[in-house]
Write a structure and sequence with these properties.
Radius of gyration: 16 Å
Helix content: 25-40%
Number of domains: 1
Shape: globular
Strand content: 25-35%
Oligomer: single chain
Strand order of the largest sheet: 3-2-1-4-5-9-8-7-6
DNA sequence: GCGACAG
DNA sequence: ATCTTGTCGC
């Protein structure tokens, strides 16, 4: 199976992990915002990226929190066909950054990167919980993750906050654009008939059409994609077992 | 039981 | 994000 672990890119965007996770990891909001400007500039948000048929494995990423500041990042690699689990990785740590709206990435990234480093398999795509470019500085968690890892990455969020959208049609597969100040930053996607839509936005290395189509494949039965559901479950379980 | 939806 | 109670419904 997979061999290299997260240190090298696969052609498209070179990973910028060292530059952003090393000594210059931000400690203040101002520094974090400055990092986001750079991350945004480094992101590849246009490319078609891999089509769903070309995506053999997808990793879902999620973070679970405890009261005391402990957090557990979980990564679950699924085979796209059949949605079977290929590999799992968790990493327990402490929040290194306070929760600040718009800066969630800095809270979750260190542990998420550690969890991804724990994978022997290098997934073709990453799906994370939260925003990509549907973000004030077009630099949500999915953008950071895509740039840092060099793996095509996008976000699927549950709640619409800072963008406008029309309700998509009732049927599974219906979409409608998400816009911020008239600029399209993603789409609302109905993953099951009649359930609340999820909000897909690109991170880096994959375009919105492919991200949307892949999300639909990853969500055959529930509102959220299986990647997120599995990662969420794994993270919670690990957190609970931490006692 | 598990998920959607309260709110 | 987390915790909790409760109702409806497959």
């Amino acid at each position: 199976m997979g061999t290299d672990t997260g240190a090298h890119g696969t052609g498209r965007g070179e990973p910028q992990g060292r530059a952003l996770t090393g000594h210059d990891w931000p400690t203040t909001e101002a520094e974090a915002v400055a990092v986001q400007e750079r991350v945004r500039a480094a992101a590849d948000t246009m490319g078609p990226g891999p089509a769903p048929e070309e995506v053999r494995t997808v990793a879902g990423v999620d973070v679970a929190y405890a009261d005391d500041g402990t957090l557990v990042a979980a990564a679950v690699v699924l085979e796209t066909a059949g949605l079977t689990v290929v590999e799992e990785s968790v990493h327990a740590g402490r929040a290194q950054f306070p929760y600040v709206p718009g800066l969630l990435a800095f809270r979750e990234l260190p542990s998420v990167m550690a969890a991804l480093d724990g994978l022997a398999h290098r997934p073709d795509v990453l799906v994370c919980d939260g925003y990509g470019i549907a973000h004030p500085r077009r630099a949500g968690l999915a953008v950071h993750l895509g740039v840092l890892t060099g793996i095509p990455c996008y976000g699927v969020a549950k709640t619409p906050f800072l963008f406008d959208y029309e309700q998509p049609g009732f049927d599974r597969g219906a979409t409608s654009p998400l816009t911020i100040d008239g600029e399209q930053v993603g789409c609302a996607l109905r993953t099951q008939d009649g359930v609340k839509p999820v909000f897909v936005s690109v991170g880096s290395g994959i375009g919105l059409p492919h991200a949307t189509a892949l999300t639909l494949r990853l969500a055959p039965a529930y509102r959220q994609p299986e990647t997120t559901r599995r990662a969420d479950r794994l993270g919670r379980a690990r957190l609970a077992s931490l006692t």
